[in-house]
Structure formats: C-alpha cells, structure tokens
Input
Amino acid sequence: MTGLPFKLLGPHEIEIAGKRHRFYVVHNRDSSTVWLDGRTYHLPQTHNTGSGHASSSGSGEVTALMPGKLLRLEVAVGDTVSEKQPVAIMESMKMESALYASKAGRVSEIRCEPGQVLDMGQVVMVIT
Output
C-alpha cells in the first residue's frame, strides 16, 4: 500500500495530492471527530487500555465539532436522551450537521442558544 502525499499547511489546512482542504479535529477520551470539506467523521479509539474506564468514558458534554452557528436545539433541559440521539443542529460553511448525545441520560444544562456562533470544541450542553 502506498501512502497518499500530504503536507500540513497550517493548524486547519492540509494539502492532499496537490489539493488544499480545510479540517478541524476534536479529540475526546474514547474517540476523535474530524471535519473535512463539509463532512464529519467519527473515529473510535482502537486500542484497549485495560484500565476499566470504558464504561465511564462518556463525559456527558456535547461539543461543537467545528466552528459555526447553532441553528436549533432538538432537546430542552430535563429531557431524557439516548446515546447518539441528535440533540442540536449546527451550520458551518452552508452545511448543516447534527450534534449527538455522547451518552444516555438527562439534559442537565444547555450553555448555548440558537443563533449563537460557536468555536470548535465549545460545550453546547451537558448530559448527566
């Protein structure tokens, strides 16, 4: 297998096979989320640490995957949610993307409101 030629141009820009791409990465305890050219990729951690933390790995924080505007919230404080349930919709570069519950539980806090511009990694809500 041959590698794909790439060059890191800056903190959020990479050149792959001669073409420039914007990207953002958010690392969580048990996964990483990559936003590349309007698409979001969820990459689970592949190694097993054996530390026993797997069952408590979900922090309960739902964070913005990329910089953009929060369009709407799909839940309210006090709502019960299931893991991977869509809880908010964001817009970035004219593309909409959903934010998902990091674990099952109850929405205990909402820190942002629709229309607000968010930074990548900013906490939108907390699930306990």
In short: The chain is about 0% helix and 50% strand. Residues 47-57 have pLDDT under 50 and may be disordered. The radius of gyration is 16 Å.
